[in-house]
Amino acid sequence: MADTILEIRHLSKSFGSHEVLRDIDFTVQEGDVTAIIGASGSGKSTLLRCVNLLETPTSGEILFHGRDVTGRGVNAPEYRSHVGMVFQSFNLFNNKTVLENCMVGQIKVLKRSKAEAKETALRYLQQVGMAPYINAKPRQISGGQKQRVAIARALAMGPEVLLFDEPTSALDPEMVGEVLSVMRDLAAQGMTMLVVTHEMAFARDVSTQVVYMSEGVICEQGSPAAVLGDPQKQETRDFLARFRSN
Amino acid sequence: MDLFAKLINDISRLWTKYYSFYLGGIWSTLKLAVIATVIGVLIGLVCGILNTIPCGRNDNIFKRAVLKIIRFIVRAYVEIFRGTPMVLQAVFIFYGLPYFSNGAVAFRGNSGMWLAAVLVVSINTGAYMAESVRGGIISVDPGQTEGAMAIGMTHFQTMTNVILPQAFRNIIPQIGNNFIINIKDTSVMFIIGFTEFFAFHQYIVGVNNMYFPSAAIEMVGYLTMTLVASFLLRALEKLLDGSDNYELVSEDQLVMAAGTYSHPDRGTPFDEHHKPSRETVIQQVKFGRNRGER
Predict the structure, then answer these.
(1) What is the span of the domain harbouring residue B274?
(2) How far does the CA of residue B74 sit from the closest CA of chain A (Å)?
(3) Residue B142, Cα to own-chain centre: how many angstroms?
(4) What is the pLDDT of residue B252?
(5) Fewer Cβ atoms within 10 A, N terminus or C terminus of chain B?
(6) Does residue B246 fall inside a structural domain?
(7) B27: how many CB neighbours lie within 10 A of its CB?
(8) Would you call B57 and A132 a contact, using CB atoms and an 8 Å cutoff?
(9) Are residues B257 and B187 in the same domain?
(10) What is the mean pLDDT of residues A8-21?
């Protein structure tokens, strides 16, 4: 039985009177690849941002190894250093080179030595195929390359779970493949991942559980074969049908 | 033409007689402007950081109250020192402190005067810079903050490693503005007896009544200082932007990297500039850098 890394319990989030998430419940085991799918505006990204505490949940609990991280006395930066995040808009540090982007967190947050940080950074940059570009600034490389560097930056922190917030949505179609193949490799290595995505093929082939969200609630969840292959609810069927017709 | 010849003649007479005064004045002006601008920018940076500390509903009441008070103090400081003339602030501080403390705190002698002048010009610059820094911080993409927070950085680490370097680059034009204003406006420090470039003009024309020739020297002097200042600031901007090119690294870095650290930004004598980058440089020299290239 694998360890339970994350447990989301009755999570809700409102912006003012607008309720974005309602009573979200799910569990992430070690090695799980959870694909969160759903229409735009269904609260997928907000859910992911809540998990990383970039948004403060209105109510509910997020248990990380059984410890609630939404309470007051929690050291949020410390928690975030165990939970990597990859953004839709990359968010690489514009004032630093590719290599420095992957080193700064290790040096400042994990207090690693420069030599150790460089070695780790290079190892992950090599894994995502960006080792030749270590001296480039983010403005000098393409979107797909930026996203691969962002993944290496997150990996270099040695996270226990990686969150992906629509990692391929801001990319040109021909660059989507390079990022997805990096993510497939990670999944094959047993990385625990939580992926908000519109890539149904990725969800079907790579994920171990699929969560379908609609209007702030989890509409259906289960194995990819169950949710994508044999959806129980009409809403899920309609959503998937829209994707197939495109 | 005769008049010009006369002017040049007068100027050269003034210069040969008083050049040490003029140069000394320029030196004091530059020293005061540089020191006060640097301190002012530091004050501005601190105020900018204090003003942008995030504060959520999850923070305790004590932290929120402290933040509220800090923000009020910074706001009051900015409004008061931006909203009153520097010449009055100088008088207020230079004569006000001894008056109020019955002479216990006073600016005595030359060093006291320097201290007062630096103090007044710095806090004045700081008041202006506080708002510029705030603008510079706000103008940095919020995604940069999120990216830094997502790898576990604290607010302070995010600020010093990611946000401020970018904000600083964005506010260099503002720093330049303030520096040039300081070069010119330090002339009001004559009110506390501070002898800079303009004070020597007043002293010299008081002796010989050559108002216009001396003013001409002052004009050229101030313009030279400000032009050099803008040139240096442009150079600093270019330096911070870094190179437009980068070198691909083809060999396996990991073989050498274990246990060693090389400075990626410091070249070695064995580096060779390969042809494409040389060609780009030639193109840039010929046609200038294209706008929107980045």
Answers:
(1) 253-293
(2) 27
(3) 26
(4) 65
(5) N
(6) no
(7) 12
(8) no
(9) no
(10) 92
User: What residues of A are in contact with residue B248 (Cβ under 8 Å)?
Assistant: 132-133
Lookup result for tokens 């420090």: B189
Predicted confidence (pLDDT) per residue in B224-241, tens digit: 999 999 999 999 888 888
User: Is the Cβ pair B149, A54 closer than 8 Å?
Assistant: yes
Average pLDDT over residues A54-66: 91
Residues of B in contact with A52 (CB under 8 A): 150
Contact flag A84-B151 (C-beta cutoff 8 Å): yes
Judged by a CB distance cut-off of 8 A, whether residue B4 touches chain A is no
What is the nearest CA distance from B130 to chain A, expressed in angstroms? 22
User: What is the complex's ipTM, to 2 decimals?
Assistant: 0.89
Please, are residues A227 and A240 in contact by the beta-carbon 8 Å criterion? no
Instruction: Kindly state whether residue B148 falls inside one of the protein's structural domains.
Output: yes
Mean pLDDT over B23-34 rounds to 93
Number of domains in chain B: 2
For residue B168, the chain A residue with the least C-alpha distance is: A95
Residue contact A136–B57, C-beta within 8 A? no
Rounded to a whole number of angstroms, the distance from the CA of A78 to the nearest CA of chain B is 6
Taking CB atoms and an 8 Å limit, are A77 and B150 in contact across chains?
no
Across the interface, of B141, B144, B151, the residue whose CB is closest to A109 is B151
Residues A187-245: tens digit of each pLDDT: 999 999 999 998 899 999 999 999 999 999 999 999 999 999 888 999 899 898 887 76
pTM over cut 0.90 = no
Chain A residue with minimum CA distance to B155? A77
pLDDT at B254 over 80: no
- What is the share, in percent, of chain A residues with pLDDT greater than 70? 99
Between B283 and B106, where is the model more confident?
A: B106
Residues B138, B58 share a domain: yes
The answer on B267 and B187 residing in a single domain is: no
Nearest CA in chain B to A103: B151
Q: Do B279 and B159 belong to one domain?
A: no
Instruction: Residue A135: list chain B partners with CB under 8 A.
Output: 246-247, 249, 264
Residue of A108, A123, A134 with shortest CB distance to B249: A134
Which residue is closest to A122 within chain B, CA to CA?
Answer: B254
Residue with tokens 């010119």: B184
- The answer to whether residue B63 is domain-embedded is yes
The residue-averaged pLDDT of A44-72 equals 91
Q: Is B247 within a domain? A: no
